[in-house]
Amino acid sequence: MIKFQDFSFQYREGVAPVLRDITLAIPDGCFCGITGAAGSGKSTLTYAINGIIPHCYPGDFYGNVTVEGLDTVEASLTDLSALVGSVCQDIDSQMVSTVVEDEILYGLENFGVPKEEIPGRVHGALEAMGIVELLSRPIESLSGGQKQKVALASIIALQPKVLVLDEPTAELDPASSEAVFRLLARYARENGTTVVVVEQKIALLSEYADLLVIVDDGRIRFADAPEAVLAHSDELLALGVNCPRSTTLVNRLKAAGLYSGPAVRNVAAAVDVCREVLARAGA
Ligand SMILES: Nc1ncnc2c1ncn2[C@@H]1O[C@H](COP(=O)(O)OP(=O)(O)OP(=O)(O)O)[C@@H](O)[C@H]1O
């Protein structure tokens, strides 16, 4: 369980808190998606989980944040990094090796994983990300999507209980973004891993997340199942969250009394609703 209790944070260089009065519980094994407008505080929220704040970026930290009962202020970064694996926005800055295999070995060796376990961990992580064939490839020869999967594999190999990912699909086309999320969700489900992912593409998040969190100007505006959050598409649009048009259309049909079911996440579901509405109207 990841717990935020009355948490607020102001960077040392800042003039005001960037996060305020955050109380949130993310259960074990949950796939939690975080979205919101640029600068709303999404990355900072994840920094409170992996300890980047206050350990790397100091500031005024109020309330408390615990991961599996470990207080992220009191715990050392070493202890936290054994529990929380993070993939940052800038993948190239995270890569430390020139070849895929070395990139995965680096973390395993640094964390003191027993030698006999290492080959299985490397293979398992590459397999989970569907990139076994990339083992010997130079990292500079990889596409953006492949690099993203290597970065994920190098963290997954460490078998953290919690994965924190900051905009893992920012550089990827829609098909690669979908592929990364699909692999990630399957891995998390099979291993009981808690995933916290910051992502701009709310349609993609909504397909995979159990819990969708909307951050607005340092506060949590919504934290609920995707359908429940998407039911507020007009508010989301006003907050700068790019709600899918299919969701907005169906919410308008609902507001007009033409539909009474749950909010939809994609075009296919919206088409079904439109068919149902037209059939009822006798068109
Ligand atoms: N190290 C830092 N020192 C001071 N202020 C910071 C630091 N990092 C972020 N901020 C400020 O905190 C606020 C929230 O930033 P954060 O990166 O958490 O938002 P975000 O929602 O993830 O933004 P984006 O979508 O643009 O990545 C911004 O005003 C930002 O300028």
UniProtKB/TrEMBL annotation:
CDD domains attached to this UniProt entry: ABC_cobalt_CbiO_domain1
Example GO molecular function: ATP hydrolysis activity
Pfam families: ABC_tran
Domain of life: Bacteria
PROSITE patterns according to UniProt: ABC_TRANSPORTER_1, ABC_TRANSPORTER_2
Classification via InterPro entries: AAA+_ATPase, ABC_transporter-like_ATP-bd, ABC_transporter-like_CS, ABC_transpr_CbiO/EcfA_su, ECF_ABC_transporter_ATP-bd, P-loop_NTPase
Keywords: ATP-binding, Nucleotide-binding, Transport
ABC transporter domain sequence ranges: 2-242
GO CC terms: ATP-binding cassette (ABC) transporter complex
Similarity comment: Belongs to the ABC transporter superfamily.
PANTHER family attached to this UniProt entry: HEAVY METAL TRANSPORTER
Protein name: ABC transporter ATP-binding protein
Organism from which the protein derives: Parvibacter caecicola
